[in-house]
Amino acid sequence: MDEATIIVVKRWLIRARQDLRSAQNDLNDDPPIPETACFHAQQCAEKALEAYLISKNQQVERSHYLPRLLKLCRAIDSKFEEFLETAEYLTEYAVTARYPDDWRDIPVSEAILALEKAELFYNFVMSRIDNLKI
Question: Residue 28: which domain range?
Fold first, then answer.
């Protein structure tokens, strides 16, 4: 990666990590805010996948549909296949957790699971990007 690309990838990963922190904070709130935590979990995974694509000099599609982004990553690295179920699970939260018309009460236990899945995504992407420390 050239220096300009490294800077962009780091920015995406920093934002992904901030989404993780936001999700954690939402769950630690009193009372917890599980819907918002789930949205941030999805955003973490989305930004991590986009960072990976940028690190491989791929055009980034702005998409909340994680299986599509994962497919682009799998074309580069087949190990991403392991995350298809996780991508499908988290995709729902891009919209349904944000808007009142799509409202459903999300239990805290579900939000904790979403956060755990997002952390796995983030850590996996970090392991797949060469020589990058943030």
Answer: 3-128
Look at residue 134 and tell me if it is in a domain: no
Contact present, 37 and 26 (Cβ < 8 Å):
yes
Please state, in angstroms and rounded to a whole number, the distance separating the CA atoms of residues 76 and 94: 25
Nearest to 84 by CA among 48, 117, 36: 117
List for the chain the helix, strand, coil content (%; round to 5): 75, 0, 25
Q: How many domains does the chain have?
A: 1
Burial class from Cβ neighbours inside 10 Å (0-12, 13-18, 19+) for residue 4 reads exposed
pLDDT in tens, 117-130: 999 999 999 999 87
Burial bucket for residue 132 (CB in 10 Å: 0-12, 13-18, 19+)? middle
> pTM of the prediction?
0.91
Q: How many CB atoms lie within 10 A of CB 75?
A: 12
CA–CA dist 23, 119 (Å, integer)? 10
